[in-house]
Amino acid sequence: MKILFTLIFTLLSFSTYAAPKSELWPYWNTSNESNTVQVNHQAWQALLDTYLVVDGENTLFKYSSVTLEDKQKLNAYLTNLSKLNPREFSRAEQYAYWVNLYNAITVQLILDAYPVKSITKLGGFFSFGPWGDEVISINGKALTLNDIEHRILRPIWNDPRTHYAVNCASLGCPNLQPNAFTVDNTEQQLESAAFTFINSDKGVLVDNGKIQLSSIYEWFAEDFGNRQQLTEHLAHYRPDLVTLSGKFHYEYNWDLNDKK
Fold this sequence. Notes:
Layout: H1 2-17, H2 42-51, E1 52-55, E2 58-61, H3 68-82, H4 91-113, E3 134-138, E4 141-144, H5 145-157, H6 162-165, H7 186-198, E5 204-207, E6 210-214, H8 216-219, H9 221-224, H10 227-237, E7 248-251
Parallel strand pairs: 6-7
Antiparallel strand pairs: 1-2, 3-4, 5-6
Keywords: Signal
InterPro entries: DUF547 (IPR006869), Grx-like_ET (IPR051548)
Protein name: DUF547 domain-containing protein
């Protein structure tokens, strides 16, 4: 009976996690390009400066070291973001807003549950992670992390580099960037994040003719295109991959990006 329950739970978990498709939530697909106001992300930047550290090919977060005061500052930052109407900002400002919001909420979720070995342990009993849980309300709309990534960021901007920008607090994920996203640095951060990930073993590992890619390229294949388009994308940041051939294998490490 225990074995059957474990099997059912595992199947439900992986079914629940199946990568959502990019499906636009039309309400958010509007902007005010004449608005030059920039959202203040200094509180988020201060947390990154204090608790994010480089360890090999990973950037890790010192969750266990976060003080009560800084937890309160993170909560206040997210409260301030929730009071803004992103539809009133320019597209470029919106992108930075949504990416920072997503990443800050993810850190908040880990801190609220810490100590925890993996983000996949969060969420409801039959959930594989917290991505389907309502985590914030913007303009009176309750949002999940899935909403932010798959119903706003992906369909509005149609930029596969978004997968290198949003962070899921896992070692297999593209690194949490050391700088808060802003209008001025978004392009540079996206390019840097893509380059770093694709040139890391967790992004692309070629060993004795075997090709191991991050599961991101399998889960979100629709964003990266067919095999040739994916290869061109990878080779743009890592030229030695231009002749990539053979069967692709996919791996992902869900262990927490934790620096003890």
